[in-house]
Amino acid sequence: MPDGPDGPDNLEGMAFQLVLQKLGTLEQNTKSIVALLQKVITQLEVGQTETEVPMASYAQLYPEIAEVEADAPAADAVAPAPPARPWYHWFLKKGAP
C-alpha cells in the first residue's frame, strides 16, 4: 500500500525537518551567548565600569516647586488645631438612649 501525503514517512520527514530547524536555532543562540559572555569577561578583566550618572536632587528636578516651598510659611507658624469638642463623649457613654 503506497504512503499518501499524510503517511508515516511524510510525518517522520516533517518531524525530522522540525528537529533540524530547532537544532539550528539552538546552535545560533548558543553562539550568541558565547559572544556575549566573552564581551562581559573582557570588560571585567579590563576593570571598566560604566560611568556613574549623578543623582539629581528634588530641587534640581522641580525648581518651581522649590521656590513655592521657600515662600510658604514655616510649619511652626501654622495655627494649632482647635481643641476637641466636649460633646463627642456623649456618643461614647455606655447605656446612652
Topology:
Blueprint: H1 8-46, H2 58-61, H3 63-71, H4 89-92
Number of strands: 0
Structural class of the helices, strands and pairings? Answer: mainly alpha
Q: How do the SSEs run, as a string of H and E?
A: HHHH
The rounded Rg comes to: 38 Å
Outline of this structure?
This protein has four helices and no strands. It has helices at residues 8-46, 58-61, 63-71, 89-92.
Describe this protein's structure.
The model has no long low-confidence stretch (mean pLDDT 77). By secondary structure, the protein is an all-alpha fold. The longest helix is centred in the first third of the chain and has 39 residues, at 8-46. The protein contains 4 helices and no strands.
Q: What attributes characterize this protein structure?
A:
elongated, about 100 residues, mainly alpha
